[in-house]
Amino acid sequence: MTSLKPIRRSIGIAAILAFGLVGALTGCTTPGTDPTPTTPTPGLVEFVDDLGNAVTVNNPQRVVACMGSFANMWELAGGTLIGATEDVYDQYELTSTDVETVGDFTAPNLELIIALEPDFVIMTGASGGKGGGVAQSDLRGTLVGAGITVAYFTVSTFEDYLRVLGIMTSITDRTDLYEANGTAVGDQIDALLAQVAGTAETPNVLLMTTYSGGTRVQDSSTMTGTMLAELGAVNLADAHPSLLRDFSLESIIELNPDFILVVPMGNDTEAAMKNLQEATAANPAWASLDAVKNERYVVLQPALFLYKPNANWADSYQKLFDILYT
Fold it and tell me: What angle do CA 307, 219, 287 make, to 5 degrees?
């Protein structure tokens, strides 16, 4: 039996923590044998999920993921799925066959999930989401009452991704995939951060999300905001929190950021950008901003900066590094 509690990844010691976790997950290997499993033999795994629930799983074969990024993560960990929420098809490709759709992650369909007779359901511990919807934590009682094992995870940073991937690969007994899709990605990120440590530049950044109904500013607590902070950027919203409550074009013009980065939300990027473009075009001072004049007004790819990039997390860091420093 493996007893597992989440650990956190600290920048600069990622490899140490990651291999420590792998050791905790797999136990000992007979000397002289190949540690890469050819036929996984997972056993009983215990851990505490991100909502504080004690969870025990034993080689689950009928797994449902109630968030697209978790469906992708489970497959990256070597698992297969029988059910997933429909948002998985927004930015991910499933390798499992005959996967049933169980609603959107904002409102998973309990009847459909239970009808699949899963032995493990992966859910998000985050509340809200696009369009609001039902908090998945509200569904736990019904699922547990039906004899179904449920685990909740919350992923906002690469550190979170690495931790959850470690739990998933302990369940599937695929430490090779933890290394390929986790620690190897972390090594690439650490190499970029080492380059940043060697520069005295501290670019200031305005980070925004835009959708058909408006525009919002993000601080360093968000997924992309965290990456920018690790890459040495100064997020103007951290020092000016009023920007988070009220998008003010006048305030942005006064702050004159070095970079303006925009993440479109929704299924239609063009519609998401239209509102912001109309607002900026209405103020001639927008064109005088340093970021605009210097072509540092950049629209970021939703696949890397809105949806969780998972195994492509290093690509997200690389894209931001290239924007800031090349």
Answer: 95
